[in-house]
């Protein structure tokens, strides 16, 4: 059984940037990663990927959903 470790500090959480235009995909992936308590997920539209990471964070993991190759 997987139990969520509530002792994980925010500073120990891995930063994830999730870029997608698919609302269902964003909801599914961010819900699953947030449930693991070791990821801090920031969700944006795919077009925002070209702007680079937000100034206040540098993600260690980037998930880019290209869909059908459309941005």
Give a quick precis of the structure.
The termini are far apart.
Structural class determined from secondary elements: alpha/beta
What profile does the largest beta sheet have?
3 strands, parallel
Calculate the terminal CA-CA distance, rounded to whole Å. 39 Å
DSSP strand content:
15-25%
**Radius of gyration from CA coordinates:** 13 Å
**Ranges with pLDDT <50 over ≥5 residues?**
none
Plain-language structure description:
The protein is of the alpha/beta class. It is built from 1 helix and 3 strands. It has a 3-stranded parallel sheet, covered by helices on one side. It is flat. The relative contact order is 0.30.
Could you list some keywords that capture this structure?
71 residues; alpha/beta; three-stranded parallel β-sheet; 1 helix; 3 strands; flat
Task: Give the helices and strands, then pairings.
Elements: E1 14-19, H1 23-35, E2 39-44, E3 61-64
Parallel strand pairs: 1-2, 1-3
